Protein: Carboxyl-terminal processing protease
Amino acid sequence: MKKISLLLLLTTYSLLGQNSAKTCEILSKINALIQSEHYHPKPVDDSLSVYVFNNFIDGLDGNRNLFTKIEYEKLSKHRLLLDNYILGNDCSFMDEFVSAYQSALERKKKVLEKIQNEVFDYNAKDTVKFSKKSFPFELTSTEFERVWRKRVRFDILEDISKLGSNLDSLAPHFAKLEKTTKAKIFETYLCKLNSTLNSKKGLEYDLQNDLLNIFCSYFDPHTNYFSLDAKTSFMSSLSTSGLSLGLNVTLNEKEEIVVSEIVPGGPADKTKKFEKDDVILKVSNKKGEEYLVSCAPLEKIGELIFSDSNELIELTIQKKNGNILPILLKKQVMKATANTVFSFIAEKETKIGYINIPNFYSDFDGYSVQGCADDVAKEITKLKNDNVQGLVIDLQNNGGGSMEEAIKLAGMFIDFGPVSVLVNNKGRHTILKDYNRGSSYFGPIVVLINGNSASASEFFAAAMQDYNRAIIVGSTSLGKASMQSILPLDRNQENFVKLTLEKFYRITGDSNQIKGVVPDIALPVLYDSIVQREDNYETALKYDQIKTKAKFIPYRKDYYPTLIEHSNARLKNNARFNEIIAANVEINALYNDPKKPLRVAFKDVFKDIHEIDALWKKVKKITTTETKCIISNNSYDSEKLQYDSFQQESNTSKIKDLKTNPYLEEAVAILNDFNNLKK
Structure:
């Protein structure tokens, strides 16, 4: 037995050594690429070491309930040495992290298995504390059972509280609900632990990927390492499947699968039960196969969803207010639309054209001319044929995309000239120009932006603002003014880095970096102050200005003060916008004010969970109130829609959304003011 144990031990350390050598090999290639090509490479020094260590530890034990204080202190000896290890091509420190993490996970599993059959006391007077900052490492080896009893009790009470909004109706059924909820929570915890410990490619591989990505993010938040793993294939397949549920999803900061988009006219949209940011908790094919998303491998979930034999899929989702809903969906073939740009006519006094650009997509493979700018040009032609008196270009929640498309789009609205200045790590300035004489549209334009308008959206909005070609309306944009490219680390193309190569500046020499595009007319936006912008990232590139040789002739803007004055007057008397302002005060307090310790008792937890119910109802009312704008299709689309039932459903959904859009209504009013000034 001793010989076998020793052999296993030696084999384990041999595998760890091989993995740490692989980590160093990739790190070395990443660092060489970054130091050579990154816009602002930084030295590998103690500052990097502290950043990587802190973020790596936070990723392993962000809640401070896995490692003891002694274990943390043992690992923290590496805190100022990681730079030396990396430069010395010695990544053996990873073996210690992997070993410590595996031991801590196995200990947590034993603790949970031990306490899961205990009868919990829900009359205890202990409390849980909340903090936006990380707690210190304070646990001792004798405290784990106490800590996890309290944590699981709190989770049980929280889940039961989310089952209904009336405490009196839940209380009589507490014993039954506690039994089923407790079983579910332990199942989730243990399932997730087993999934982590038995990871398909090994714990060492997962931690290596985390470390490499953290190393990259030290140079800026948009430089990232990635490999061709299950996450990439899963997320892409969910958005491109022929037989589809009509949902696009993403992973949030908690690694939860959340709804990012509901495709109009699709199965999910037809239920009218899905909303953006709903969390998907469980997936079932109604044949006995089901996976808890919190612990099942993503590839398993993908297999269940995309198998042709699984036409019916049940998704269990959790709403923002905590309610949990099982929803049965039947897949259908989703027809590809002419990419994603679309237009409508918004009418209030006059007919105004509306164009929505969800992202700056492009034909990256070069097989056709199809791209965002070309699609916008088609929509403009349709709207001009209906004699619209102005144009609203909606970039709200547009996260960016192809800069080439943004350049082409800006060129469609200015006659000729520079649109931006690119600067690389050598300090070389490249003036990006629109070389095509003439414009696609000469009428007045409003561009809508918000805190989620980023990168290429900001590029386009800034160019339109600098030329005074459009009035920018909404809230300040995200503040990302850098350009990335995906580069392979070697010929094998198994490892890649999305690398920040350049910064772009406005033709005035100013920058959108951190600052964002500041609207000419500011309107209140729900959640605006808590939206994560560029300046929330610790390693974001700094704001600066340059001297530029770009020469341009802006359009006149002497009418701006009058338009701004009229809009501000409407804003003061607009009930919807005043409700948004009032709701934001409550939202900001909820998010920013320190939260008091909470007693782990049913009444206390229930009250805490449902304190936001009234606020949530206000938000729902705000987002569903219809405006006085009449929304209709342009003549071309109206005729085409008669022969396409799928597009009819999609069209109805889009019109419904636009009817509740107060920003479109105000944009129309601004364009009406402009046209009245011209009379």
